[in-house]
């Protein structure tokens, strides 16, 4: 269970890094990019936590 959470977290970080590279190649300030990345990372984390909690309750 904990290993699965760590793997999901690593996957989320990898996706966030790729999105950062894509956004960084376009115009925009560093602060704007970080705010967008934080929003994306939080949405992924919440979705994964909800999915894991639903699996455990079944």
Structure in words:
Keywords: Membrane, Transmembrane, Transmembrane helix. The chain crosses the membrane at residues 6-23, 35-53. There is one protein chain. With 58 residues, the chain is an all-alpha fold. The protein has one domain (2-57). It contains 2 helices and no strands. It has helices spanning 2-25, 30-57. Helix 1 packs antiparallel against helix 2 (30-57). It is elongated and about 45 Å long. The model has no long low-confidence stretch (mean pLDDT 75).
Give a summary of the structure in a few sentences.
The chain crosses the membrane at residues 6-23, 35-53. By secondary structure, the chain is mostly helical.
List keywords for this structure.
single chain; 58 residues; mainly alpha; 2 helices; elongated; transmembrane helix
């Amino acid at each position: 269970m904990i290993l699965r959470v760590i793997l999901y977290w690593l996957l989320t970080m990898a996706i966030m890094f790729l999105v950062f590279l894509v956004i960084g190649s376009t115009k925009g300030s560093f602060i704007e990019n970080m705010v967008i990345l934080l929003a994306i990372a939080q949405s992924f984390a919440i979705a994964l936590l909800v999915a894991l909690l639903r699996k455990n309750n079944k």
